[in-house]
Amino acid sequence: MSHSQESGGRRLDRRRFLTTAAVGGATIVGASALGGLDAEAAFADPMPSLDAAIPSAFAEGRIVAMNRNVLDVAGSHGERHLIQLTNATSIWKLRTTTAESIEVGDGLYARGAAMPDGTIAADAVWVNIVNVYVTIRGIAKDRLHLTHGSDELVGHIVPDTTTASYLGGALTADLSRTRIGQEAQVLGAWRPADGAIDIARVSLGH
Amino acid sequence: MHGSHLRPVSNAKGFDMACGSTSLWAGEATWFCCGNAWGSCGSAGTGACGTCQSAKNMAAWPNLSAACWDITRPDLCGENMPRRTCGAVMNVRHQCSGATVCVTLADCGPRTKSFCGEAACCNGACRTNRVIDLTPSAFTAIGSLSSGKLPVYIYE
């Protein structure tokens, strides 16, 4: 898997690019704005330790403030993170998107490089992403009613986005084979306002 | 992270354990959240071992205990992985990129039996059946959360 992109006739390492961009105070733009960056491929990049002087970092929590290209994140265990978005940051919020879709109150997981000033230069940020094991309790045209443990959830079916996989088969937009009582894995984006989930993919089991 | 063997980590009891290079299993890795959390993960708890946190490199194993096995039943999908208990460490390596993360077992899972035959593929090669669940920290070390699943080799 490649961790670099062609730029000006030479290979440009992605991690080096994002840390350089962070130091230089790059403005907020989605990775796709770079053109040469394949956002999906960038998400899949595992962020290896290419340079021991730049340790990798991970953060999770909820955004409590945003200041231009820096997200102020309160971790779930009381820690605090300042996450820098750069031109090289890939952003997911139900789908690959741009920084403009991020809001205060959103939850996130971020992967990146630890900067000397204590911030994290983000390589990838997954906003409000959840991946929960559920049982289907009800089916409507535009949503699934689910239970996750003892909690009830609403999973919204998003046109042109939600897909299903039946018994490990290929992804399809056809959700007509879902059945009440089925166990399923739902990957989607949590809605902070009401606790529901916009479904990206539902994997139906036995 | 890449190609590292015998990287020391702290286990649940606080002393160093080593992630090894002896092949243990292969299959599909998925991800889950645990510990204090936001969103739908808020009720997840700290897992069967009481130590699980999403921001640490941890994992759930289908044969963490007899009671765990009764829930996950990987044998129904042809997977008879050995018992490994809380605090055991494993190296999980992406089948194609070679990216590796050392994880500590902290929970029971995934529910292998519910998804028999499910595959995760890369470069035309697939691994079938859910055999390990990784925390977001561990999963993002070797792949993307939005993929939901990865083909992996597991070493100890």
Automatic annotation (TrEMBL), chain A:
InterPro entries: TAT_signal, TAT_signal_bac_arc. NCBIfam families: TAT_signal_seq. It comes from the Bacteria. This is Tat (Twin-arginine translocation) pathway signal sequence. The lineage of its organism: Bacteria, Bacillati, Actinomycetota, Actinomycetes, Kitasatosporales. It comes from Actinacidiphila paucisporea.
Automatic annotation (TrEMBL), chain B:
InterPro entries: RlpA-like_sf. This is RlpA-like protein double-psi beta-barrel domain-containing protein.
